[in-house]
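During the second year of the project, the team shifted from modelling isolated chains to modelling whole assemblies. The rationale, set out in the original proposal, was that interfaces cannot be judged from single-chain predictions alone. As a representative example for this report, we include one of the complexes processed in the last quarter. Its constituent sequences, exactly as entered into the pipeline, are reproduced here:
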Amino acid sequence: MERKNRGSSDIHQLYTKRKLIPENWQSQLPNNSSPYTSTMVFVVRKGNPKQIKNWSDLIKPDVSIVTPNPKTSGGARWNYVAAWGYALKQNGNNEEAAKEFLKKLFKNAPVLDTGARGATTTFAEREIGDVLITWENEAHLVIKEFGADKFEVVVPPFSVLAEPPVTVVEDVARKHGTEEVSSAYLKYLYSKEGQELIAKHFYRPSDKEVAVKYAKQFPSLELVNIQQYGGWDEFHSKHFADGGVFDKIYQP
Amino acid sequence: MKSHKILLKLSFLLFTLGSTEEASAKTTVELLEKKINELEARLARYENGSSAKEIAPTVSLSENNQNTDLNKLKTKVNLLERKIEVDKEVYEASASKMPKFDAGADGFRITSQDGRHQVRIRGAVQADGRFFAEDHGGVRTAGVNNLGTGSVSGIPDQFQLKQARVWLEGKFFDNIYFKIMPDFAANNILPDAYLDYAYKSYAGLSVGKQKTPLSLERLQGDADGMFLERAYPTYLANNRDVGIMLHGEFAKPGYKAEYGGPVDFKNFISYQLGVFNGAGDNASLDKSSAGTFDDKEFDGRLWSHPFQHSGHDWLEGLGLGVAGSWSRPTGLALNKLTSAIGSNSILDYGFTKVKTATVKAGALSSPSYLAALTGEGDHIRIYPQAYWYAGPLGFMGEYVLSEQNLNAYSPYKTSGKAAHFKQKNSAWQAQLSYVLTGEDATFQGVKPIRIFNPSEGTWGALQAAVRFSDLNIDPDTFNYLDPTRNIREAKSWAVGLNWFLTQNAVVRADYEETYFTGGDGSITGTGTNTSGDSFKYSITDRTTEKVFATRFQLAF
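Output from the structure prediction step:
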């Protein structure tokens, strides 16, 4: 199975543009070089006054959502993929219907921040919006930082599988004399100790034993993979390039 | 209190939105302002002690409705504030990628945000006037001072557009520099066009048409010299040439070298090693000219500021160096040499002796000249050179010894038979300057402390300069060249005043006298001996050239 460029177009560019890493970089470490996974979830205000449970709730006329701009934010692109996958699934893979869904979704976004951290600020500090779509770990950080008395996390039954990959850029590491410590660090991410740390910080560990131990923290849900849509390169050029789908559906 | 906070936020919002000129936002603010005014009126009534009952009849909103309105208002204000913040972030992010535009005394500059790429637009105009004294007036051919005994013809006074240059220079990817400089006032319209890959400060490679690293005064910027025209040593070097040059700069230990261009005058030590087509003395190949022979010219130069960062202020500006060249041309056409500021021809390798047969026939009224001399064989030059700048005082001097092998046609032998001889020429110059208004003199000119502005009582900077220069032509040359039309030696002295209105605009005024040995006279002999020099030339010294010249120059 083609596994290239599964989790990050950013890292893969190191190969495609400068050949700084080998073509098979993603097969050099376990789990496609992804020591953990994550997904996109919702943060709502305490009591979930708008009763937001699934993506379909986000396009209701009285719901205000907060998500960053997918043209500038990596996290926002994952949000977008999750919503796109949900809409396709609900509409029998009808892309026009999916576009209409996303159009309604972004119509409910009063402001598009440039990044995930800014979106959290908008939602949590400026008290704008009914729901924040964000990384699962970021959602838990919101609760931790701003208080469980103000917000709660809603894990929708459907979202996207993010597999943040890691690799050592050997030429650069060699130049800096950090080749050994860089490799050791990546290996540590896969160790039991590393996986525990990962889970404690609300990333989903790849180690099965650690995953079982923290199962309560990470509800199971249906996850769509970016590979189902041709990988990041294809998805990006179709949706986020100038004149792409996003430019057509979103009117500020 | 809530109302006060919201009011403050709105005030901020109004101010900010006013600057963004977003019509839609203004409309929203106007609506909000209306609501705020209503709420403010209510608050004022409360603060004045009116009871709820008293005011109740005048208010249309219930307390609950009021809170709801306030919450909505707060959300809207928060949203607008956040939108402005996000817009600002987006603007700053996009602005951070925009190139920087800069316009100033150094010209116009476009620089990429990361500073790695830059293009500069620069220019220079030099408008001259040259006025010759004691030359009997007249309308003789411009550029030729070959006044004959008894001749009453003079050298025409003239206005001249010496330079009209607009050029691009800059860099790409940090260290690939370039310069493309056309000159619309010159016949050879592309003086400079080169790329310079300054890979490391100690090793860069410049390729294209550029100044050859020989004469110190030639290497000085065209707009930076102290006199209108350069002195004689410059004329025994190439003007510009096409080729490739390795160069590098070294800083004093503990300091960092900075890029100084293909020929550096900034660092502790610098060197240049170049291979060029070999244009010959005082020559600049046309932009499309290729070399005319396989053997190329090799040039090298070593330069140092030995007292840079020494702590001895008065010696910091001392520069010492030596340059040299070797070439082996074949059939190289030789450029004529001229007087310095007068710019009149004083040695023309095309002015050869007349053919013996012509003399025999006594047909001097329409003499037939032998073919022009050409460069043929080894040509070696050596240029010791120095400058010294200390405060307002400036000095520059250099000497050149040039030995070149030439082909000529002997007037004493069978017509068309070539002769070969080695010509040893030499020249030197020394110039001293002082900035009367106290600014520092530098190799790159003078920057006035106070620019010319009569209404403010400031007059720019004034520099006075004096120069002595001498050119010696090998006497053997006159076995082949017409000694009545070419000089053997030229000695010049010049004084100059440079008035720097700004660092860009300069008014120059020079006076120069040039004394010639030989170069004037007539053929008087009618000998018939074809193996000796029985011809008799009545050779006198060419009339002293006295020229007063002015220039208005703008360079940026």
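The helical segments of chain B are 2-20, 23-47, 52-55, 63-95, 216-219, 232-235, 313-316, 356-360. Chain B has a mean pLDDT of 83.
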